[in-house]
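Supplementary Methods, section 5.1.

A reviewer requested that the exact input to the structure prediction be made available. We therefore reproduce it here, unchanged from the version used in the analyses.
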Amino acid sequence: MYNYDNFNDLLEHRQHLPFGNEIRSCLMFRQLPLITSDQPDYAENITCLRQLTQALATKLETEILRKNRNSKHNRMGALYCQLNDVWIAPSWSSIDFNGNYKFLHYWAKEFMKPISIIAHSNKSTNDVEITVIRDTIEKSPLTFNIIRNTFLYNTLAPTKIYAAKTISIKPNSVLSADTFQLESNLDPKTYFYEILLKDGRGNILDSTPFNTIDQIGIVSKNNLWNSFTDVRFSITIGKSIRTETVQNIKRIAHHASIAIIAGNNENEAALVQNWYNTKPEQKRFEKEHRLLYNATINDKLRKFYKHPSRPDPLTSSPSNCDTIEDDFISPQPQDPNYGDIHFYKYFRDWSDPDVYPIPRFSSEYGFQSLPQKSAWDKIMYNHDNFNDLLEHRQHLPFGNEIRSCLIFRQLPLITSDQPDYAENIIYFSQLTQALATKLETEILRKNRNSKHNTMGALYCQLNDVWIAPSWSSINFNGNYKILHYWAKEFMKPISIIAHSNKSTNDVEITVIRDSCYKI
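The structure derived from this sequence is encoded token-by-token as follows.
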């Protein structure tokens, strides 16, 4: 494009399919948000949504064709159109003219694998049809297991019930939707479960997003064990955990998007700082912490994950060291002078820059917000009350009070008896989250060359597993919150940051450049 070119005019000029742009819009807006050409970042958004639609539709059609190979039609082949391009224009390709992969090409490497598991809903029967595809010559297990690990929920720590339920499935199995519901005798307010899919050899089959986030530049932290877990260590448990650790490391260790990998999340900090009244049995907890995380998980991590280009794996996150001198339990896990920290101080004034610590690496920080009203509408019955549902799905102790405190430090006070309360509290919560996360991120970025040498920051979190108050910047349905739109700006490689200095009454201007090319 020349400086005088208009994106829409060029798109129209290079669209050689009659009504092609109208067809594109029709395809996208069946499932994805409506955007118009007068919106900011229209070109980037329409490109992203178009590639996403292409990938979703091609994946679905390919899976339908593959799973019908043994049907009465005996379908024996499928070639999607097309692989690459001869110019830069709207096309059916999965690789553009410059050789860059579109979403479809990354996805195709997954949905065209020789061994694939396809799950489609059957609207007429309300069943989930599971089809196992095997296009390999060598023998491989044809029985797959759905492992349901059930948890007992409480406000401090979910407790795993180890008697996992295993559901064996075979090719072309049909599972009722009831398979994915809790048993009738379990209260959904008290219990929940996770699902793992394993093949007949016990290997975890997981369609992870790592391939995608490797390419688009998202950085993540991976914890290999549960948060706040009290495990009575035994030889049997140790053997099982070693096997699971090796399986997971082999699956994810090669991904460039993983900045930090840790044996667990916050268990060391919880133990040292007595979050859950562990002092009466401190020696036992410390012994089992070292056995589980250092001698078991980290022993395997050091063998399979360690690489000269990467930081050593952490026993726990946050932690400032894993040295022999400290016997692998740091006396100050949140020390900003070493290692990584987590920062969640909700009752402080988020608009004050002096509130935020300046660490070597901040692997978790963030603030809660609420999903859009349209997301709540999809799960609410006519008799549901918004406030009651908000209270029921808020799993952070005093979370709603914390949210109100954060909002009303800088924004107007609203009460539940006011008109449009739900829309207003959602908007204010997202705006507060975006403002606070932007400020903290900018402080961390501009202190990279300070005495602390801050070299990384991961805000918590990217997306959601359900519709509820959370720290995410993308809700369960894939809709961006305000934070995610803002993050695309305040995380740009070249940024200008302006902060007031209360002590000098000056405005400090910092220019950030995280690019390799000359300016």
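The mean pLDDT is 79. These observations are discussed further in the main text.
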